[in-house]
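Input structure tokens:
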């Protein structure tokens, strides 16, 4: 899955010449063989490299604090989402929903490399959520919908329908 995501990330970044990726180990960690040095290993490392190669370092953060937050979200993606047991996914969604309560993007006031990578990671989860569940995770759903409509992000993924108005269970509203 990560290899397809890296391909979509390349397109989003506007890189014209696609890289060749492979995986290593049981966990299928992404690997990018470089012409000018050692192979790059890991989703976060490769994504950061691609942003620099595309001459879009702002996607990695513009201040030291923002760069740290972007790296934190890339780490979150790999450790909390990619490694998440099925029975714990609701906890992760709840945590994301709470974090996004007063935010448009994961790290600051503009899109970072963490936004599309997290979007790619949870797409298969959000697409299967019922309307009521999407409402329960309203902040996450809002962020997800915003990112899926961000120019050039979605690529290989189907759009997820998100209702714009809340569904009420009683007529007292």
């Amino acid at each position: 899955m990560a290899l397809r995501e890296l391909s979509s990330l390349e397109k989003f970044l506007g890189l014209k010449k696609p890289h060749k990726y492979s995986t290593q180990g049981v966990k299928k960690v992404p690997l990018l063989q470089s012409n000018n040095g050692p192979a790059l290993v890991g989703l976060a490392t490769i994504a950061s490299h691609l942003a620099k190669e595309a001459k879009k370092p702002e996607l990695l953060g513009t201040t030291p604090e923002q760069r740290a937050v972007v790296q934190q979200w890339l780490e979150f993606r790999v450790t909390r989402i990619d490694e998440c047991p099925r029975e714990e996914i609701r906890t992760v969604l709840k945590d994301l929903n709470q974090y996004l309560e007063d935010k448009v993007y994961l790290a600051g006031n503009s899109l970072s490399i963490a936004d599309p990578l997290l979007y790619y990671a949870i797409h298969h989860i959000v697409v299967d959520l019922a309307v009521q569940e999407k409402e329960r995770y309203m902040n996450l759903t809002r962020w997800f919908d915003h990112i899926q409509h961000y120019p050039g992000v979605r690529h290989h993924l189907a759009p997820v329908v998100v209702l714009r108005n809340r569904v009420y269970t009683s007529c007292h509203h």
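The first strand starts at residue 21 and ends at 24. Residues 135 and 165 are 10 Å apart (CA to CA).
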